[in-house]
Amino acid sequence: MGDFTGLHPEYEIKDWRGRSYYVDFIWTLGGHRFVFEIMDYGSHGTDRTKYRLDLNRGLFLQAQECRVLTISLDEMKENPSFVLAMVQSVLAPYLAASQSGSGTVYRKFGKIERQLMRLAIRHGRTVYPPQAARELEIHKQTVVKYCRKLVDQGKFRAIPSGTSGKIYRYEYIGTMQSPDLL
pLDDT tens across 158-178, in order? Predict the structure, then answer.
């Protein structure tokens, strides 16, 4: 899958209370952070307080824009090929979007274009420029300009309305798991 650039074992993180704790692994790729927590039943499953704190840590990490992958130690021992396949499928879009070996993320689309594609997915694949302008806090004409650009690049389709044929909305025609969304 690549190399270990950006992978840090036993990485210290301050929690919401200001206390230090260590995640098993953290991997940074561009602006993305992936936390890998290896859980065994003995230290996490029998004590309800410890279990609750582990879940709270996971929520806290997600609030800090980390992608948390929790992996069973038993599954790693008994079925490592399953764990490897699942980790590869989670990381594949991010790895596909990165340049090989550099650790920096190459982006084919600009920030506004990516925001419009993600907005379209959240709204049933459809973008209405006035609504998008309000949500993204940019001018409506800027939204229209970028939507037209995405049409030219094959990510959006302009939807003509009624008999006038005016364009009031755009449809996202890309895939939901496209690395272009990152």
Answer: 999 888 889 999 999 987 767
Does 69 share its domain with 134?
no
Is the pLDDT at 103 greater than 70? The verdict is no
What's the token pair of residue 114?
A: 């990516």
List, in order, residues 6 or more apart from 112 with CB less than 8 Å away.
Answer: 136, 138, 142, 146
Residues 66 and 118 both lie in one domain: no
Boundary (domain end) residue, out of 97, 132, 158: 97
**Calpha distance 122→168 (Å, rounded):** 18
Range of the domain at 128: 111-181
Instruction: Count the Cβ atoms, other than its own, within 10 Å of residue 150.
Output: 25
